[in-house]
Design brief:
Layout (H helix, E strand, L loop, with lengths): L2 H8 L9 H19 L1 H20 L3 H4 L6 H7 L1 H19 L2 H19 L5 H27 L4 H32 L8 H20 L15 H14 L12 H9 L2 H16 L6 H6 L5 H7 L2 H20 L3 H20 L3 H12 L1 H15 L4 H14 L2 H6 L12 H38 L17
Helix pairs in contact: 2-11, 3-9, 3-10, 5-8, 6-8, 6-12, 6-20, 7-8, 7-10, 8-20, 9-10, 9-15, 9-16, 9-19, 12-20, 13-20, 13-22, 16-18, 16-19, 17-18, 17-19, 17-22
Length: 477
């Protein structure tokens, strides 16, 4: 008898007493409840992006003049936030895995970064704004890695990409409607109470973050075993369906300690491969934080420039939703990353080759499509390290944190002397996306071969205990 036959006899339905149709109805209700509560993370992520992109919008006003910034000081102000991202993501996710209270930790970080954002509006010089941005990075750093780990504790592998797309639409909304909001604030709030319009950007958006963070403390779930508002049936289903998805028994999940998870992640070459690939990807996506500056090369005034910066991201959000849903349905990852990067690369080529206003604006729509690939990639990380929560918590944080060095590098490849064409900047982004796409392709091929080996071993093995992977487990590629 094959190992697969043995496994079928050993691994039955984790909830045999619950009829299938009743379980399906309960699962649908559970997912609706989860989706509704998790939606607060979209608002928080939107506000996170607004707090970051305020710099780009403020640059079109009197930000650099009022703070007496010179040379590369603006680029340094932009990039310093990534230091906190790099240093905080791994320890914060390890702490989250140990504390098991994301409903406190995640909104708590948002509350503090809202306060820091408000204080940024009071800065008077380069030193002040640099320190504010440094503290912003330390407080925002735990957020996104923590949210990714949180949803991986609730959703199955073929449900993740769409949920990540919903959360990441916060970044798209931040870029799109942040420009619209900035346009209104910079023009209507200039001089009120003797304050420059760009300062009101930080006051208003930082204050909004504080309010939403307080609300999130009462809305977000913790983990399935310690969320109070679940019924006993919902709690049992939440745990068992993830065990089913990873082909493990419920009591076999989560046995690794936080420090063991750290070692597991550090010693897995796939984690480091993804770190380097995402580093290159982040360099290629560095145009995002300079998007208003790129839009300004078309020659319009500040208000029109900020308004024109919104539509590309609205389209990008729609496309990201579509491909993430299709990616989950087909259980495929790499092909969608490749397609998104290819469209962005085409946008870079157009911008390198011409300064024609129509072509230049069309290229912005193409560049923004990189968002779809980013959504699918983040789901891919969760899928690749799906089985053990302790390792997954560290792997998500390591990949997201260490790859932030790409954002630091990317902040310096858009110097004013390369404008208004920014051909060299676009060429660097093109090359970086090429490197990341090739590395993703290599991982795709590797995981396909691993899946083939798993299938072959299942077919040939005489005893289920001889198998390295649980029966039925496959990497999503």
């Amino acid at each position: 008898m094959s190992a697969l036959s043995n496994a079928d006899s050993e691994m039955g339905d984790t909830s045999p007493s619950v009829p299938n149709h009743a379980r399906d109805d309960l699962e649908r209700r559970l997912l609706r409840k989860l989706d509704l509560r998790m939606s607060i993370t979209v608002v928080l992520y939107t506000l996170s992006f607004l707090d970051n992109l305020n710099m780009s919008s403020a640059r079109l006003a009197s930000f650099e003049k009022d703070l007496h910034l010179q040379g590369n000081q603006y680029a340094t102000v932009l990039s310093i936030v990534n230091v906190g991202y790099i240093l905080m993501q791994v320890p914060s996710n390890m702490f989250l895995h140990w504390l098991e209270k994301p409903a406190i930790l995640i909104p708590g970080c948002a509350l503090i970064w809202g306060i820091v954002s408000v204080l940024t509006g009071f800065t008077k010089n380069y030193t002040g704004v640099l320190l504010a941005r440094l503290f912003l990075g330390f407080t925002e750093g735990p957020f996104f890695a923590g949210v990714l780990f949180l949803i991986s504790k609730w959703y199955k592998r073929d449900e993740l990409a769409l949920r990540i797309a919903v959360i990441l639409c916060g970044s798209v909304l931040g870029v799109a409607f942040g420009s619209l909001l900035a346009s209104g604030i910079l023009t209507s709030m200039q001089g009120i109470l003797g304050q420059a319009g760009w300062r009101w950007l930080f006051y208003i958006e930082g204050g909004a973050t504080i309010v939403v963070a307080i609300c999130a403390m009462f809305i977000l779930p913790n983990f399935p075993h310690n969320t109070r508002w679940l019924t006993p049936e919902e709690r049992a289903l939440s745990i068992s369906r993830l065990a089913d998805d990873s082909n493990e028994k419920s009591d076999e999940l989560g046995k690794r300690t936080t420090m063991q998870g750290l070692w597991d992640a550090v010693s897995d070459w796939k984690v480091w491969w993804f770190v380097v690939a995402l580093f290159a990807q982040n360099v290629g996506q560095s145009f995002i934080i300079y998007f208003p500056t790129i839009a300004a090369t078309m020659g319009y005034d500040t208000t029109v420039t900020l308004l024109l910066a919104a539509p590309p991201w609205v389209l990008a959000m729609i496309v990201a939703f579509a491909i993430s849903k299709y990616s989950d349905k087909k259980r495929k990852r790499f092909i969608f990353i490749f397609a998104s990067n290819a469209l962005a690369a085409l946008g870079f080529i157009v911008s390198i080759c011409t300064m024609d206003m129509t072509a230049r604006y069309a290229s912005l729509f193409l560049m923004a499509q990189v968002t779809g690939g980013q959504v699918v990639f983040l789901g891919w990380i969760n899928n690749t390290f799906a089985r053990e929560p302790a390792k997954r918590a560290v792997a998500i944080a390591m990949i997201g944190g260490l790859s932030q060095t790409g954002n630091i590098f990317g902040s310096y490849i858009w110097p004013p002397k390369w404008g208004p064409t920014y051909r060299y900047s676009f060429a660097i982004c093109f090359a970086a996306l090429g490197v990341s796409t090739i590395m993703f392709g290599v991982m795709h091929i590797h995981l396909k071969r691993v899946n083939e080996r798993i299938e072959r071993n299942e077919r040939d093995a005489k005893d289920i205990n001889d198998l390295r992977y649980p029966v039925g487990f496959r990497y999503l590629v």
